[in-house]
Amino acid sequence: MSAIKEFEHLRIPLKAIKLATNNFDDNNYISRGGFGKVYKGELIHLGKSMTVAVKCLDRAFGQGNPEFWKEIMMLSRYKHQNLVSLLGFCYEDGESILVYEYLPNKSLNMHLSSNDLSWTQRLKICIGAAKGLRYLHDPGRTMQRVLHRDIKSSNILLDDNWNAKISDFGLANFGPANQEFTFLFTHPVGSFGYCDPAYVESGFLTKESDVYSFGVVLFEVLCGRLCIVDYNDNRRFLSKLAQSCYEENRLDTIVQDGLLEQMSRECLRKFSTIAYQCLHKDRTQRPTFTKIVRELEIALQFQNQDQSTFQRNDDFAPITPSASKDEYLKDTLAAYRSAAADAAARMQAASRARSFKRRKKDVESSNTEEEARSIIAAMRIQNCFRTWKTRKDFLNKRHQIIKIQTIFRGHQVRREYTKIVWSVGVLGKAIVRWRSKRRGHQGLQVDPNNVEKDENQENNGMEEPAGEHVEKSVVRSDSGLADQVEKEPA
């Protein structure tokens, strides 16, 4: 009941919905999805008449109340131009109904194999869908992130201007903002052929699972077919087939007929690369939707530039429709190779000019080879001179460093020697004091005269050399040991 009160402002009476759909007449029936049947209707809402799409929950078809309220909560809070708009709902007499804006061009899957959409239009649809998913994955600091969990071409709807809008949020999950999050499911759900294999195997759902599903949609748009295809009399997943064709550089064998002639080669390369990255087995290697949007927009720029180039440059003029696909590819590839060779030559000439800090005009006369040889010879002479000068400078610096090290080491040795001499003197004095305190101990006989002499020297501030002091201490120790040996009985 609390959920009903929260969204009370979206409630639409069942009577108004029945009137809009002519009591759910079959003539207004549009399609059936995972939620249930969808009808078209003319609804008077907020004082004006509008065309709407009405979804009726079919509990026997798979989804129920949790999905119903989740979609209401999701679409009432998250607003974006690439998300379908929810106008209201009805929850009366056992009926669970959602009312959306009506999108006349229906879903993307209905246009994949047709020629209604040009390649440029398909690119724009993919960019719009990616922007909607980017918003769900990163809606802002105050909003929870959303994982859609059921991205597929049938859930990408198209308005009258062919703008893409994401729909069907019954399986969506919410996660904390500005944090990485993972969901664990014992029974993974989703659409067959679009689900992330890592999610199916482990049950762990992450935002990269949505990226994988969108990669399948990108290859559907490129190939003009659904995710499960018949290829060489075998039933295969489009994702696996597209990956193998991309790795073997033969995507032209699966691209929809009629699209290849419209594509820029750079656009095809950029589009197929980002789609391939979305299907990467390692989740950490898959791109974010921010990167996907950026790469698709670059692909669209390549496509627009190429179209203008084809119109200006006769060398890149499209092959006539009578030419076969192989001839078209062969001629186009030769033209691109020629252009690439010319561009490489120009870049090399410009690089040489910059190294000599002067301009160099393109020379097409017979003496071009001679000028190139003279430039190479001059560069070699410069390199030799620079090498010799570098070695000479290095040797001079090395000699200076050795001199500095020698001076420093000599100073350090002298300091260490002074410390050692001072330490020996202090040690000798300590030994003398210790012996004077233990005069009665055998073998440690101390000469009183020497002790008095040492004390006098200390009082007078005089220090005898450390070497003589140690020698006297050793002599006194030896004499004490000799006296001890004489006193012992034979």
TrEMBL record:
<keyword id="KW-0547">Nucleotide-binding</keyword>
<dbReference type="InterPro" id="IPR027417">
    <property type="entry name" value="P-loop_NTPase"/>
</dbReference>
<dbReference type="Pfam" id="PF07714">
    <property type="entry name" value="PK_Tyr_Ser-Thr"/>
</dbReference>
<keyword id="KW-0067">ATP-binding</keyword>
<dbReference type="Pfam" id="PF00612">
    <property type="entry name" value="IQ"/>
</dbReference>
<keyword id="KW-0112">Calmodulin-binding</keyword>
<dbReference type="InterPro" id="IPR008271">
    <property type="entry name" value="Ser/Thr_kinase_AS"/>
</dbReference>
<protein>
    <recommendedName>
        <fullName>non-specific serine/threonine protein kinase</fullName>
        <ecNumber>2.7.11.1</ecNumber>
    </recommendedName>
</protein>
<dbReference type="InterPro" id="IPR045272">
    <property type="entry name" value="ANXUR1/2-like"/>
</dbReference>
<dbReference type="GO" id="GO:0004714">
    <property type="term" value="F:transmembrane receptor protein tyrosine kinase activity"/>
</dbReference>
<feature type="compositionally biased region" description="Basic and acidic residues">
    <location>
        <begin position="466"/>
        <end position="475"/>
    </location>
</feature>
<dbReference type="InterPro" id="IPR001245">
    <property type="entry name" value="Ser-Thr/Tyr_kinase_cat_dom"/>
</dbReference>
<keyword id="KW-0808">Transferase</keyword>
<keyword id="KW-0418">Kinase</keyword>
<keyword id="KW-0723">Serine/threonine-protein kinase</keyword>
<feature type="domain" description="Protein kinase">
    <location>
        <begin position="24"/>
        <end position="300"/>
    </location>
</feature>
<dbReference type="InterPro" id="IPR000048">
    <property type="entry name" value="IQ_motif_EF-hand-BS"/>
</dbReference>
<dbReference type="GO" id="GO:0005886">
    <property type="term" value="C:plasma membrane"/>
</dbReference>
<dbReference type="GO" id="GO:0005524">
    <property type="term" value="F:ATP binding"/>
</dbReference>
<dbReference type="InterPro" id="IPR011009">
    <property type="entry name" value="Kinase-like_dom_sf"/>
</dbReference>
<dbReference type="GO" id="GO:0005516">
    <property type="term" value="F:calmodulin binding"/>
</dbReference>
<dbReference type="GO" id="GO:0004674">
    <property type="term" value="F:protein serine/threonine kinase activity"/>
</dbReference>
<dbReference type="InterPro" id="IPR000719">
    <property type="entry name" value="Prot_kinase_dom"/>
</dbReference>
<feature type="region of interest" description="Disordered">
    <location>
        <begin position="439"/>
        <end position="490"/>
    </location>
</feature>
<comment type="similarity">
    <text>Belongs to the protein kinase superfamily. TKL Ser/Thr protein kinase family. ROCO subfamily.</text>
</comment>
<dbReference type="GO" id="GO:0009506">
    <property type="term" value="C:plasmodesma"/>
</dbReference>
